[in-house]
Design brief:
Number of helices: 11
Helix content: 10-25%
Distance between the termini: 54 Å
Strand content: 25-35%
Radius of gyration: 26 Å
Strand order of the largest sheet: 1-2-3-4-6-5
């Protein structure tokens, strides 16, 4: 770590800067930490890039997408925080304690055979997680791979695209690192797909196993020509690894293995991979952690190590010495407080909070009217209570679910429990379920929830009674995060792979009422309207099923990895991963229109609500209302609050509710802001939508939910 210069910042957002880690073509990287929090690697974008509007727009979207990747089993370094609207935009990733792959090989030589197989399997799992979010890394290279004691971590995924096509790169340059770019990156620039990352993986494995650059050294133009002509030197690669490396380096993208194929070629399963990634896994003699180099001193990369500068170079978060240790601080229980009389029926209720506790929130609203004026019929919400669950489980869906009688609130926690709370914010019960609990569904028969699989979807469906006892569980494998109610049944998508899956309907007793294959697996949970189940698939189709019987009514090709639709009037609005990422489909399955909107985060993650005859969706910086007739923008509202965390919108009556950062907004049917209020508890890392019922708004926060009363 280098000392700070006079020109270096001492504070970046909420983080105190501890030192300078280095710089690259995209910006400066600093070691920083939050007060009583973990250390982070924070990258600050260069001033000239910050002034490029196209770069900012792309950076905003790519950071948001990258934040959805991470967690156990993904082998990626999670993007923790970012501010894409700062004068100098920045992003913070989790600190990874270990060297990057390039420095490990330079200092300790090529990895052993077992270490290379572990590395290949873990990197393939990382690429699978990245590709599942419709991202392509575009710059996988040894210095973008950190070697922690529990496995490698891929960094900088999704950010390369932010530079492509901007004013800074419109002179025909290749965005990526020379020696690790794919042939199609050289030929087509930004027009690359997941197979491009597999080519880069092959070059990385050649370097890790042989210790030499597979396409040699020299001027950039010479190295690029070698890649284009297939002039690769694999003489240093051990023969055991040659078949896999050669397969990854095939010129034809379609002939390369998929990440799943790479994992299979290593002979590893998810379980054996976890068991193999133990301290010292990446070869004897290589820097292996706190005791491996320099008589017990912690390893620090030498100054200047790494590939030649890329326009998107990311300097690895290195391990440093001579810094004070960060003490682990236990969660602070909330103070004892009186609840508002308006929310408790006038009774004076006092409770001591624990992890799942409540506390009174001070009024920090900004009650100013929008420029267009007009107060909502409900008015600005008043302060209420907060219930903490160490963070909500999953990434989207309603932030909570209310029982049919409206007297009980169910909250799924990342603490592995489903919580039941009364209307005063007091815990009724919480049941440990053994996994992160995603958005619950309450019906007359009980409450249902899916357990997060650590990547994108579910591993188990659980049914609980009103008393909190588990009635039954069923194993599932799907991209769903939210169970869906239809015709007295509970619907969940299932999948054995992206190529095979369907929708299954469970009766209240846990029996399967019907199960309908969809061919390629659903991309997410189904949507139900008027007894019809609509589901998008990885087979680029939108399908309609009868909710009572599961009979397929129709199937229509829409776009790559078709997402979950929203019914607006008689038109289904749906997103896909194609160049034209917005689509309109009739209720009978007829395609009506296809449209591109580069500034709107589309793909299969597009999430809309019907409001005032329009489909309203949120991004990290604006609300957009789409006309179902052609996909054009009817109105937009640009958020001005700090941060990029936001919620999917919710509609109740004549008001649309949405959260940006830690601020909750209300909008009328014309898209005019009628009120806004600061929500205590910090911004949720997911897009969980607010829930509105009986004069209350339940909103997601960083560690649970906050409840506000409408006037």
């Amino acid at each position: 770590m280098q000392e700070l210069r006079e020109t270096d910042p001492r504070v970046i957002g909420p983080y105190e800067v501890l030192g300078r880690l280095g710089s690259g073509g995209m910006g400066e990287v600093y070691l920083a930490e939050a007060r009583r929090g973990p250390r982070l690697a924070v990258k600050v974008v260069r001033a000239e890039q910050a002034e490029d509007r196209t770069f900012r727009a792309r950076f905003r979207h790519e950071v948001r997408a990258a934040q959805t990747v991470g967690g156990a089993g993904t082998y990626t370094a999670r993007v923790v925080d970012a501010d894409t609207e700062a004068p100098r935009p920045w992003m913070a990733t989790e600190f990874v304690d270990g060297p990057n792959l390039r420095d490990a090989v330079l200092d300790g030589g090529p990895l052993t055979g077992d270490a290379v197989r572990l590395l290949a399997a873990a990197l393939a799992e990382a690429l699978a997680a990245i590709h599942a979010k419709a991202l392509v890394h575009r710059d996988l290279k040894p210095s973008n791979i950190l070697l922690a004691q529990d496995g490698p971590r891929v960094i900088d995924f999704g950010i390369v695209r932010a530079l492509e096509g901007t004013a800074l790169t419109r002179t025909g340059v290749v965005v990526g690192s020379v020696g690790y770019v794919s042939p199609e990156q050289i030929r087509n620039g930004a027009q690359v797909g997941p197979a491009s990352d597999v080519f880069s993986l092959g070059a990385v494995l050649a370097y890790a196993s042989g210790g030499e650059e597979p396409f040699g050294e020299g001027q950039d133009s010479v190295v690029l020509l070698r890649i284009l002509t297939g002039d690769v030197d694999l003489s240093a690669v051990p023969k055991d690894h040659l078949p896999l490396v050669e397969a990854c380096l095939r010129d034809d993208p379609g002939a390369r293995p998929t990440p799943a194929d790479v994992v299979a070629a290593t002979g590893h399963t998810a379980r054996s991979l976890r068991e193999g990634l133990r301290p010292g896994w990446y070869a004897a003699g290589a820097p292996g952690g706190a005791e491996s180099v320099g008589g017990g001193e912690r390893w620090i990369p030498e100054h200047g190590s790494g590939e030649r500068e890329s326009r998107v170079e990311y300097v690895a978060p290195v391990t440093v010495r001579d810094l004070p240790a960060v003490a682990e601080v236990p969660p602070r229980p909330p103070s004892r407080r009186w609840l508002l009389g308006a929310l408790t029926g006038g009774a004076g209720v006092v409770a001591a909070g624990g992890l799942g506790g409540w506390l009174l929130l001070r009024d920090s609203s900004d009650g100013r009217q929008g420029a267009a004026g007009g107060s909502s019929a409900t008015g600005t919400p008043r302060v209420g209570w907060q219930y903490k669950v160490a963070g909500l489980g999953g990434r989207h869906g309603p932030c909570a679910s209310l029982s049919p009688d409206g007297r009980r609130v169910y909250v799924g926690g990342s603490d592995g429990s489903l919580h039941a709370v009364d209307l005063n914010g007091l815990s009724v019960w919480h049941t440990e379920l053994g996994g992160e609990v995603m958005s619950p569904l309450a019906t007359a028969h009980g409450v249902y929830c899916l357990l997060f699989d650590g990547q994108e979807g579910a591993s188990k469906l659980c049914a609980l009674g009103r008393d909190g006892k588990v009635r039954w569980t069923r194993p599932v494998a799907s991209n769903s995060q939210v169970p869906v109610a239809a015709a007295g049944l509970v619907l969940v998508s299932y999948a054995s792979s992206s190529d095979e899956g369907g929708v299954r309907a469970y009766a209240p007793d846990g029996s399967v009422r019907w199960s309908t294959p969809t061919g390629a697996a659903p991309t997410g949970e189904p949507m139900v309207a008027d007894s019809v189940v609509y589901v998008g698939t990885f087979g680029d189709e939108l399908q309609a099923l009868d909710a009572k019987t599961g009979k397929r009514l129709w199937a229509t090709r829409v776009g790559a990895d078709t997402g979950r639709p929203t019914l607006v009037g008689d038109t289904l609005l749906v997103g896909s991963g194609g160049e034209q990422s917005l689509h309109g489909v009739s209720r009978s399955g007829k395609p009506l229109w296809h449209k591109a909107d580069e500034m709107l985060y589309g793909s299969r993650y597009l999430s809309c609500v019907a409001f005032g005859g329009l489909g309203v969706t949120a991004t990290d910086y604006e609300l957009v209302a789409l006309d179902p007739a052609d996909g054009s923008r009817a109105w937009t509202f640009r958020f001005t609050d700090e941060g990029i965390q936001y919620s999917d919108p919710t509609v109740a009556g004549d008001t649309l509710y949405a959260r940006q950062g830690a601020t909750l907004y209300g909008f009328d049917r014309q898209g005019r802001r009628t009120w806004r209020k600061r929500v205590e508890g910090g911004a949720s890392v997911g897009t969980q939508s607010p829930v509105v019922r009986d004069g209350r708004v339940y909103a997601a926060t960083a560690d649970g939910i906050t409840v506000l009363a409408l006037k």
